[in-house]
Each structure stands twice: as C-alpha cells, then as structure tokens.
Design a protein that fits this description.
The chain is an alpha/beta fold and 397 residues long. It contains 13 helices and seven strands. The termini are far apart.
Length: 397
C-alpha cells in the first residue's frame, strides 16, 4: 500500500528523526550552503590561481637571472635594467584587411624583430663571441614568451579578484594544467637555449649535419649553410641553419635563390612535428608539402618557387610533443635517424638518377654544429643529459 501524500509531507516536516527542530536546522544549513558554497569555492580556486601565478612569476624572474648570468657572471645595474626592459618587447601584427602583400608585411616585421634582438645583445654584450650571442638571443625569446604568459595569467587573476566572478575563475582553473605544463617547458627551454645546449627542435639540422659529415660547407644566405654530395646516384644539396649557435636562418629565401641557379627536381624537408597524446616520441611520418612551422613567411617562399617550377615537395617529420621541441634533445628523438634515412631513400626513388635534389633540415640548430664533429658533440651531450635524468629519477624514487 502507498502512503498518502499528506503523511509523507507530515513526516518530512518533522525531519528524518521525527523532530521538527531537525527539519529547521537542515533547511537553514541548506540555505547557507547555497548562499556561501560559490564563495567558498571561489576562495579555494583563488588560492590555487595565486599559487600558480607566483610560481610563474618565480620562473619568469629566474629566466631573467639565467640570461643575465650568461651575459656576465656579475651583471651590473645597466645589464639588469636593460634585460628587464627588453622583456616587455613586443611585435604588432600588420593589418590584414588587404590580404595582398600580407606575407611581405609580416616578413618586414619579423626581420625588424630579429635585428632588434641582435642589436640589443650586441649592446649589453659587445665583446661576446658571435655563437654565444645567438644563444642569448634564443634565450631571450624564450624568456619573453614565459613573461608574457605570466602577465596574461596575472591579468585574469586580478579580473577575478575585482569581479568576484566564479565563472571566469572556473574557466581559468580549467586551463591551468596546460598553461603550467607549457610554462615549465619554456622555462627549461630558456635555460637550455641560453647555454647553447641541443633542443628537440634541432632534429632537422641534426639529420642534415650528419649527412654532411666531413663534407665542405658554404654560407649561402643569412645564417644558412649549404653542402653538396652524391646520394643514391642523385646530386643532393644539403641545407640547414648555421650552427652550433641558436639560429633558424631564412631557409625559404635561400631555397628561392638556389632554385634560380640550379634546376632542382625535388625538395625534401625534415622537421620536428607536434605529436598527439598517445603517439610515440621519435616516430617518423612521411607526407607532402613543406615541413616548416613558424609564421609562414619562409614556407611561402618555398611553395611559390615550387609551384612556379612544378617541383614535388616531400616532407619527413619526427614526432615529439610541443614541450619536447623546446626542451633538451632526447635519445628517443635522435634515435629516429635511421628511419629518417630510410624515408629519404624512398623519396629519392621517385627522382631520376643524376637529378638535383634539395634536402632541408628545418628548425633551430641550437647546440648542433655543421659537420660530423658537431653531431658527435651533440650526441655526447644527449648521453650525458640522459644519464643525469636517470640518476635524478633513481634518487627521487
């Protein structure tokens, strides 16, 4: 038999234990819970946000110290002030309403940015060797990025404080794991690049330097070197950024100019590429197109020249996470070399013997030289780094 509704309401009114006082207390607690729970949650979230921002600010400040100490073991007030000011450096994107000519606009700004970095490092460290200056430039680029992330997160934390908006706080909290993950990688990358150590993004230049071996090289464009050798009966040009300094060079423009002098039959680009979660670091994939990141100016030069001449564009990528690309180079990444060589061999099969082919090692050549010796130095550093990581893990466990 079902209990009449009025009996249910009567018993609920008395409370679970039949006491009206219990019902009143339960109701009051329920009201208090609905009124104050969002505020309690906001306080809890704010505590987490403040802690994260302080951690980011600490990393940002430490990145400044790392760069200043690379400039001078005892940086004076002038160096401290100069680096502090330069951390606020920015580049404003050009107007893109008129899309015709947008690439040239971006190219002009990127060139200006590069020159500004070189001028600044030349000012604060005029007696520093050229290769060392390039490391400082790359370290500054990483440090400025970390500083920008810190400022943006702090900005939203202050907005939450002012508006007491639980919704904004929740959105920011949901993004924090990814922000923290990237920030810590950039911090580690800043330290590595400022000291001139090999990074994951140097995979492309590493492969080409290993192919060059003891061959002769010449500088053909701004920060770009070129070598030439016979591979599988083909006349192969090998191109990469000039190392072991932290350089990207302008491979697009260099390739554009090279194609004016030689009848290139195919272009093969090798680069590090972001993997999806679950994919293995160091796995190799083949495709078509230009394997090259960045804003797109250099890639545009290559694509335009290739389309005009009808040249096939093959690409070989070695997968790694976006964090691994800016962190120290790992054994799992350079171990992909044999598979990359196999991919190059398959790509060359589609070109007639005696044809001219260009292989481009795309990426930041930080810590990787231009010959077999430069490759061996990088490999020794990777082995040493792997041993240190293993020792640290063993110690922590």
């Amino acid at each position: 038999m079902f209990m009449p509704v009025e009996n249910v309401l009567f018993q609920f009114g008395l409370g679970l234990d039949g006491n009206p006082l219990s019902f009143v207390l339960s109701f009051v607690l329920l009201v208090v819970f609905f009124l104050f729970y969002p505020r309690i949650m906001l306080i809890q979230i704010m505590w987490k946000l403040e802690k994260t921002v302080k951690d980011l600010e600490t990393m940002s400040n430490e990145s400044k110290v790392i760069i200043m100490k690379e400039i001078s073991p005892k940086p004076d007030k002038r160096i401290r002030d100069s680096v502090g000011r330069f951390y606020d450096f920015f580049m404003i994107s050009p107007v893109s309403l008129d899309t015709q000519g947008i690439v040239r606009k971006i190219e002009h700004l990127v060139k200006g940015q590069r020159e500004r970095f070189r001028y600044f490092v030349g000012q604060v460290a005029p007696k520093m060797p050229e290769e060392k200056r390039t490391h400082i430039e790359m370290g500054l680029a990483g440090g400025i990025t970390l500083y920008e992330i810190t400022k943006v997160v702090r900005h939203y934390v202050e907005i939450v404080k002012k508006t007491k908006s639980f919704q904004i706080a929740m959105i920011l909290q949901m993004q924090l794991p990814l922000v923290e993950r990237m920030a810590r990688s950039i911090f580690k990358g800043t330290k590595v690049m400022a000291k001139g150590m090999p990074i994951g993004d140097a995979l492309g230049p590493y492969v080409v330097a290993r192919l060059i071996g003891s061959g002769k090289t010449r500088e053909v464009d701004e920060d770009i070197i070129l070598s030439r050798k016979e591979m599988d009966g083909r006349d192969v040009f090998l191109m990469k950024a000039k190392g072991p300094g932290g350089r990207l060079g302008r491979p697009g423009l260099a390739i554009h100019n090279l194609m004016k002098e030689h009848k290139i039959q195919k272009i093969i680009s090798i680069d590090a590429a972001a993997k999806l979660e679950g994919e293995k670091t160091g796995s190799v994939a083949e495709g078509v197109g230009v394997a090259m990141g960045g804003i797109g100016v250099e890639r545009n030069y290559i694509e335009e020249a290739a389309v005009k001449s009808g040249i096939p564009l093959d690409s070989i990528i070695v997968k790694m996470s976006s964090e691994e690309a800016i962190e120290p180079l790992k054994r799992a990444i350079i171990s992909a070399y044999p598979k990359v060589i196999e991919s190059i061999g398959r790509s060359l099969e589609n070109v007639k013997k005696g044809s001219k082919v260009l292989i481009v090692g795309v990426g930041n050549t930080c810590g990787v030289g231009n010959s077999q010796k430069g490759v061996e130095d990088a490999e020794k550093w990777v082995e040493k780094y792997e041993r240190q990581l293993k020792a640290m893990k063993k110690k922590s466990s």
